[in-house]
Write a structure and sequence with these properties.
Blueprint (H helix, E strand, L loop, with lengths): L5 E8 L3 E9 L6 E9 L14 H20 L4 E6 L1 H4 L4 H12 L4 E2 L2 H16 L6 E6 L4 E6 L6 E5 L3 H8 L8 H18 L1 H4 L6 E5 L1 H9 L14 E3 H13 L2 H5 L12 H14 L4 E4 L4 H15 L12 E2 H8 L2
Parallel strand pairs: 1-4, 4-5, 6-9, 9-11
Antiparallel strand pairs: 1-2, 2-3, 4-12, 6-7, 7-8, 10-11
Helix pairs in contact: 1-3, 1-13, 4-12, 5-11, 6-11, 8-11, 9-11
C-alpha cells in the first residue's frame, strides 16, 4: 500500500528556547528539513529555587508558541508534535503554565520522560551512524538534563536521564564572577563524577562500545571549540571531540567572561555562560566511561521524533505515547491559536 508523505512539525520547548523544526516524511527517505524557527523563552533562568517558572517567562513561552504555530500553518504542516523537556517538565507549576499556554494558544504541550528522550535520541544516532557503528554509546547534554544510552540494536539496552544539564549545573554550582576558581571547578567535577559513576555501573559492566556518539548543541559547540569543522562544511563532515583537547580548554573557559567566551569559535552567546559546565560534564563522561573521543552526530532528539513518526506512518499506525500527547492536526491548532 502506498503511503502519502507527511509534513510534520516538532515544537521543542527547552531551557533556553522554543524550537520548531519542520520536515517532510516520506517512506524510503530520511526526514527532509523544510524550516527551523527558534524563539528565546529563557525558562531556566526564570525558574526560582523552588522550581517555579515566573510570569515573564510564561509570557515569552506563549508568544513563542503562537509564533511557532503561525509558522507551521504558513508552511502547511499536517501535524504538530508540541512537547517540553526538563525545564518545564520538572517545574513546580508546570500544570498551571501548560494550562495557560493551552488557553492562550490552543496548544497542549506534551512531555517526554528523560528515558524517552534518551531512547529517541539513540534512535536518531543509530539511523545516522548505521549498523557499522556496532554496539553504540550515546551521550547528550541538554540544559536541564543529560541523557546516556547504550545498545547494539535500534533500541538501547540502557537508557538514562541524569540531572546534569549544563544550564542546571551552571545555576546551582558556578558563580557569575570570573575567573571561576579551580576549587569550584573541582567540586563540580567531583559532583558530576559521583553521579555518573553511580548511574553508569550497568553500562560499565557491558562490553565496551565500538562507537561512542555525542549529540546536542553543547557537544557540537565543544567539538568546534576544539577544532572540528565549521557548520558550513555540511552535516556529512566527520566531527569529533577529543578528551585531551577538551581538558586543555576547561581552565581557559574558566578564566573568560561570557562575552569573551562568545568570541571563541563555535560558542554561541546564548550558551556562553553554561559552556564551562557543559565542558566539565563532557570530560567527566569520557573519563568515567574511558572514552578518548566522541563522534559528533548531527541528528538528535527532534530527528528521533521525526523517525518515530515516520516508522508509524509506514506501519499504518498512530505513533503511540511519544510524547504523552499524540500529534495534533494543524487545522484544529491554528483555528484555536489565533489571538
Amino acid at each position: 500500500m502506498e503511503v502519502a508523505p507527511l509534513r510534520l512539525g516538532v515544537l521543542d520547548i527547552g531551557s533556553n528556547s522554543a524550537h520548531l523544526r519542520v520536515a517532510d516524511l516520506e517512506p524510503g527517505h530520511p526526514p527532509l528539513p523544510v524550516r527551523s524557527v527558534k524563539t528565546a523563552v529563557r525558562l531556566a533562568e526564570a525558574t526560582d529555587k523552588h522550581g517555579v517558572v515566573h510570569r515573564p517567562a510564561v509570557g515569552r513561552l506563549i508568544g513563542a508558541v503562537r509564533e511557532s504555530v503561525a509558522a507551521a500553518a504558513a508552511l502547511d504542516v499536517d501535524e504538530l508534535i508540541p512537547f517540553a523537556t526538563s525545564a518545564l517538565r520538572d517545574a513546580a507549576n508546570r500544570d498551571d503554565v501548560t494550562a495557560e499556554v493551552r488557553a492562550a494558544t490552543g496548544v497542549g504541550l506534551g512531555y517526554l520522560t528523560g528515558e524517552q528522550e534518551a531512547r529517541l535520541t539513540f534512535l536518531a544516532a543509530r539511523r545516522w551512524r548505521g549498523w557499522s557503528a556496532g554496539p553504540m554509546l550515546l551521550a547528550d547534554i541538554g540544559g536541564g538534563s543529560m541523557e546516556l544510552a547504550f545498545g547494539a540494536g535500534l533500541e538501547p539496552e540502557v537508557a538514562l536521564s541524569l540531572p546534569l544539564g549544563a544550564g542546571r549545573l551552571t545555576r546551582h554550582h558556578l558563580p557569575r564572577r570570573r575567573p571561576v576558581p579551580k576549587r569550584t571547578r573541582k567540586a563540580l567535577r567531583a559532583h558530576v563524577g559521583s553521579v555518573l559513576e553511580e548511574a553508569t555501573r550497568g553500562i560499565a559492566e557491558l562490553p565496551p562500545p565500538v562507537t561512542a556518539v555525542a549529540t546536542s548543541k553543547t557537544f557540537t559547540q565543544l567539538a568546534r571549540l576544539c577544532g572540528a569543522p565549521k557548520a558550513k562544511a555540511g552535516p556529512y563532515r566527520e566531527r569529533h571531540l577529543d578528551r585531551r583537547e577538551l581538558h586543555r580548554w576547561i581552565p581557559r573557559l574558566a578564566k573568560r567572561t561570557d562575552a569573551e567566551r562568545a568570541a571563541l569559535r563555535g560558542v554561541k552567546a546564548s550558551r556562553a555562560r553554561q559552556i564551562l559546565a557543559g565542558a566539565i560534564v563532557a570530560e567527566a563522561v569520557m573519563d568515567v566511561l574511558s572514552l578518548d573521543r566522541l563522534a559528533v552526530c548531527p541528528w538528535a532528539l527532534r530527528e528521533g521524533l521525526f523517525l518515530h513518526r515516520l516508522d508509524a506512518l509506514i506501519e499504518g499506525r498512530r505513533p503511540g505515547t511519544l510524547p504523552e500527547h499524540s500529534p495534533v492536526t494543524m487545522r484544529d491548532v491554528h483555528l484555536r491559536a489565533v489571538p
